Amino acid sequence: MENSSRPPAPLPHPAEDVLDHVGYRLKRAHAALRSAMDQALREHDLTVPQYACLEVLAARPGLSNAELARATFVTRQSMNVLLRGLQEAGLLTRPASVETGRARPTTLTDEGRRRLNAAQGVVYAIEARMIQAIPDERLTELLEDLDRIVRALTD
């Protein structure tokens, strides 16, 4: 049972209410980005995780299931399902087996590259909208701040 006589935890920074907290604002920005991407990618018959997988594979062909999962922020189990779906759609290829180890390197097919190229336009337009909302002189600082937040939470 919770002790209701315990004083509330001190606020990490001055805030009127929870909606002013940094974590809440980051989540709100993430939700807005995800919603915009979901909507834009529908016309390309892709989900955000599928798009992310194609984008990472274009930059780093041959990654394993586990490496792709880490790079796209999904579980290995989810990535396995995602890869099967993309393979069945003809967007990527994986060998049925490998001579050594268990990792099956994954690469985009020509159709996968075509679909990715078509979808990149709408995704990059969304990123451009985000960037246009930030004064040019503050973009580098924002990116550095976001990296510092990640380091603070993962160190």
TrEMBL record:
Cited SMART domains: HTH_MARR
UniProt-listed PROSITE patterns: HTH_MARR_2
Annotated ranges, domain HTH marR-type: 19-151
InterPro entries cross-referenced by the UniProt entry: HTH_MarR-typ, MarR/SlyA-like, WH-like_DNA-bd_sf, WH_DNA-bd_sf
The organism's place on the tree of life at top rank: Bacteria
Keywords assigned by UniProt, alphabetized: DNA-binding
Residues of the signal peptide: none
A GO molecular-function descriptor: DNA binding
Record carries keyword DNA-binding: yes
One GO process term, biological-process aspect: response to stress
Full protein name: DNA-binding MarR family transcriptional regulator
